[in-house]
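Researcher: Batch entry, complex prediction.
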Amino acid sequence: MPVKHQQRPAPKASASVEEHRKHAEEFLAKEEYKQKPEKYNGRSDEAKP
Amino acid sequence: MIYRPPFIKQGDGSRCAWQNCGCAAHAMAAMRSRLGRDPGNEHGWPPTPSAIRNQIGGGCDGTDLNENDKAVIHLYGVDMWVRYNVPWTTFRSLIISGRGAVLQIDYGIIAPTKYDASPGFYGNHAIYVNERRSSDGAYLVYDPLADHRRSSIPQGPQWWPATLLQKASYAMIGTPAGTVNASFTRDTEA
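Model: C-alpha cells for the complex:
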C-alpha cells in the first residue's frame, strides 16, 4: 500500500520567507501532486482577438 | 528586488496565436527562471510563444502544463515544477518564497472585471504570476492577452486582487475545491 503523506498546512502569509521556502520545498517533494487528475482537462481555449 | 521578466503577448501574429496563452506564459516563466540570461544554445533567445508552440507540434489545440514544460526544457533548459491540486495557501508560499508560476484559470471569472483583456472570451486560460505584494496580498499577473491592442484592453503586468486570482483558478473544471493547478519556476531568490 502506498503511504499517503499528510500535507502540512502552509505558514501564514506574514511568516518569514524561510518558513515559506521550507513549506514549498516539502510540498514539491511529494509525489501525489505530480500527476494530472483524470477528470482534469487543463487545456487552454481560443481567446478573442 | 524580484526579477521581473518582460511582458510577452500571445497575439503576435504567429500561428495559433489566440490559443498560445500557455506558450506565452511559459515563455515569461522561462525568462524568470533564467533571470533573462541566454542559455547560448541553438534554439534562440529570448523565448517566444511560437518557438514553444512549434516545439510542442501538432495543430492549434490549446496546450497543457506538461506539454509546455517539455518544450521549455528542450528549448531553454528550464525545468518547471508542474503540480496539480495545489492548496491555495501552498501556492502562496511558493510565490512568496521566490518562485514564479504559470497558473490555469477560468477567464469567465475575469470577463466582468477591469482586468478583462479579451472581451467575449470565457474559456480556459493560462497566465504568468511573478510575485505577491505583502501590503495588500495582490499578485503581479502577466496576462498574455493584456497587450493594449485596443484602448479598453489592459497593458502588460497588472496587480490582481488575491480573491480574484483565487476564484478564477478554483473555477477550472475538474479542480478540487480550494486547490489550483500550476507550473512553478525554480526559486530565483534562494
